[in-house]
Amino acid sequence: MNFRQLEYFLAVADAGQITAAAQQLHMAQPPLSYQLKQLEAELGVTLLHRTSSGTSLTPAGVLLRDYAQQLLDLRERADSQVRSLGQGLAGVLSVGVISSSIGAMPNAKLRTLTRHYPKVQIRLFEDNTYGLIDRLEKHLIDVAIVRTPFTAPRLASKDLKTESMVAVVPKKYDHFRGVTLRVEDLADVPLIIYRRFERLFAATFAQKGMAPFIACTCDDARTAVQWAEARMGVAVVPQSVAEQISGPQTNLRPIRYQPWRTTLKLVWPEQVTPGPLLQRFIDSY
């Protein structure tokens, strides 16, 4: 099994037809079919169901597709890293970001870095904190911006920003007496929460004997703010997200509760010595 065979296999898997894949690869169909059969023979499994209308993946083919993409991504990253080793002036840096890191990237130093070294290419991968940690552990990305709380003992880290939660309050629900809220003040309003903090919020409510109505749970803090803007409830999100995207339809009320403070962190694998390009990126924060 070689990289060329994996590239051929992925092309067929994506196209759903050997003929269409051959056209995309700028090659004839018979050599492509031969390479696929050689790959199947070497692995001892059938990877593709072949019919008159096209191809579909067998369970073994689905598994190989995931591994093949990872292997090709790793090859591309290895090639880039080796070529730029010793300089840090060129290459591709794979960076993971969470939706609630809005405002943390790009920053002024990073803009300066890419302006001075125009051959540095940033590849962004968006996921939640644990999805990005998984990518780091599989060496599919170089570095990530994630948010506490999380458990990942094998990561080196650099704190970027610690902030409080705020309530994004539509004016129809803004009957609070003060600018700053207590957790107890949220008991009687419908809440929109970012799934990242669902367990933390639930534990706090249970501890305080509260049972607020959770009107919506979503995977993106920006979505929570948008729903508050639509007057669907009160969104509870990190302060930086609320300040970046909330509009005049809502008011921001800081929540005075220490356990709900959260920190943005830059993380990378602890066992990996940062190369010049990654170190330049880390130093830009």
Automatic annotation (TrEMBL):
GO terms for cellular component: protein-DNA complex. PROSITE patterns: HTH_LYSR (PS50931). Keywords: DNA-binding, Transcription, Transcription regulation. GO terms for molecular function: DNA binding; DNA-binding transcription factor activity. Residues 1-58 form the HTH lysR-type domain. InterPro entries: LysR_HTH_N, LysR_subst-bd, WH-like_DNA-bd_sf, WH_DNA-bd_sf. It holds the Pfam family LysR_substrate. Coiled coil: none annotated. CDD domains: PBP2_LTTR_substrate (cd05466). Belongs to the LysR transcriptional regulatory family. This is Fhu operon transcription regulator.
